[in-house]
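Bumping with the actual sequence this time:
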Amino acid sequence: MKKRVVSIICMAMLETIMACGNNAAPLEVVDEAPQAISVVEESTENEETDMSVSEGNSDAPAGEEEKETVTTGGYPWINSDIKENVTPDMEVSPKDDFHLYVNKGWLLENDIPDGYTIWSHYHEREIEIKKQCMELLKDETIEGHDAEVVRTYNNLLLDWNARNEAGYTDIKEGYEKILEASSVDDISGLITDKDTAFEYYNFMAYAVRSGLNDPSKYLLCVDTPTLILKDSAEYSNRTEIGDIYYNSGKELFSFMSGKLGMSSEDAVKYFDAAIELEGKLSGSIYTTMEKKGEGYLDKVNNEMSFEELAALSVKLPIAAIIEAVGYKYDGIYLVTTPDYFKTLDEVYTDDNLDGIKGILLFNYFSKYAKYLDKETYDKTNELNAKYLGTSGTLSDKENAYNIVTDLLPVSMQKVYIAKYGSEEDKKRMEDLCQQVIDTYRELLNENSWASDEVKKKAIEKLDKIAIHAAYPDKFRDTSDIDISDCSLIEATRRIWMAETKHDMSCLGQNLDKDMWAEGFNILTCNAGYDPSANTINMIIGMMGEPFYSSDMDVEEMYASIGAFWVGHEVSHAFDNYGSQFDAEGKYKDWWTEDDKAEFMRRVKKLDDYLDSIVVFGDYNCIGTNIDTEMVADITGLQCALRMASKVDGFNYDKFFTKYAQINANLAIYSSELTNLLQDEHPRDYLRTNVPVQQFEEFYETYDVREGDNMYLAPEDRLLIW
């Protein structure tokens, strides 16, 4: 499917920020909808952030022409995710562009709503849940601690009078302490003092997650921090994406620092010094491409003791930082990029003090921006419109709900499940998952290229996949969260601290497999495969129209649950990423040399085909970025078609139509561009057209022949398994 669910595994696959406000180690993410980048960075993984294109780099050197936005010129299909490319007079045919043929009416009839940069059936489903939750948030009759906590926090978010009165008061002291630092030693003092350590960026990212070698226990993962321009490649080869991050970040930085009394000249000085310093660090931080490359897991799988971790840096006081934030324990630390700390030692000096302070200030502002006054909120929306291309804003109630579920996901989920949970639907989803797994076993048994040894291990892994449907029976105890009688900023800090204390309590302990929803929000329209636990997670957020209902036709159910959801997620166990983990969730090579070579040959063939596809203008797909998701798409469809072959009178037109409809999506230009360059998911129209091209049933259903735009010669088709 399109969306990612955070796995418990400790991996550096996606930049995120912990709810406690410190930079957390990037988490392995299995599946998530394409999303772009907001001006204000969110503090947990599940926040859906989006970005649109700027009018061009406003800081481009004099004489340089701004790059023109081009959305046309796609090959072999237009990018119909962008509405401007679809017109009423277009002639459509299933033989030419199947996705456009099915979805033309929906694409023309729908618009991206105010406050959004993408719109799809996922969002329609999530809006349905949001409406239910927003009713729950204002229902004073619901009793219990969790209901009280989410209701109280929601009310604090909606109280603009109190927020406007507080203004920047609650963050002024922290801001001034950064400015007052006159040396690196002063900075070290701020990030190692227990009273201030949680407030500030500290040039590391860390999170409590399970490890690669032993997925049964929690450890601390220490990683490189999130950069202002996100991808470290942007510091050596700036793209349109980097321009947007730079320009929007600089303007927000100047606005917020100005609210606290800084001159515009000083704001520019600190921001540009921060970018310059990050440029020096970027060479030792993995790029987006490198994170998706072969051998990446080997590079980041560096287990160390606390003493070994502390010794990585001479100048940055790693030991004191870890102790101050409470993450010191007698156990294993997974350090993704040890060499980064050598580079950091070269720049963590008084000569770079402005850059160091600039980075701390930027992250401090980003951390608090969405909790401040109405003027700041309006400014972020203004910047979203200017740089991201959004129109309008979310309602106050929807914006508040997003933050509530961001910071209090467990409590909100408990309240929702108490009202809307269905054991009957949960059991039905479990049965559907098992049906897909049983069909996948047939595909593996009949595989013609893998050795008996590898097929045996693959089937062993398949048989040990745990099915998680709808919602867990056990949630974390949240009774320690107390946000009564305090301001919004203070309540937010208390929530961050409660999250941190929970993380501390997990270090070195065994994972509680009954609490399988830890780390992601089951109220999103989402699903995922977790390689470290070998589980598929089909959560309640996706269990509604148009993806699931108890009375769906078999063709629709197989297209949705069989192919798009469960089939896709099971396939992740055997794609070029998930196949690196064994049946127990350990990072372990269970392949023969010959089998691995054949598997990678097939993936390379897929990459080459994807590379040939032009999305728009001069931008082609990047096969190595998106092949894991495309493997899962193709194999999920293969599985569903096997299920379909057992049904008498199966209506393949209805099946393929439903499959295409599920992929219907609208997006603004740079949402598409961001995901094209940095995300692991193909563009949505390609997630229809490329998979269906691989199967004879599609050709027979629509009489597709050589010379038709949807035709792919049998020898060029791209089945992996």
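The tokens above came from a reply further down the thread. The longest helix spans residues 423-445.
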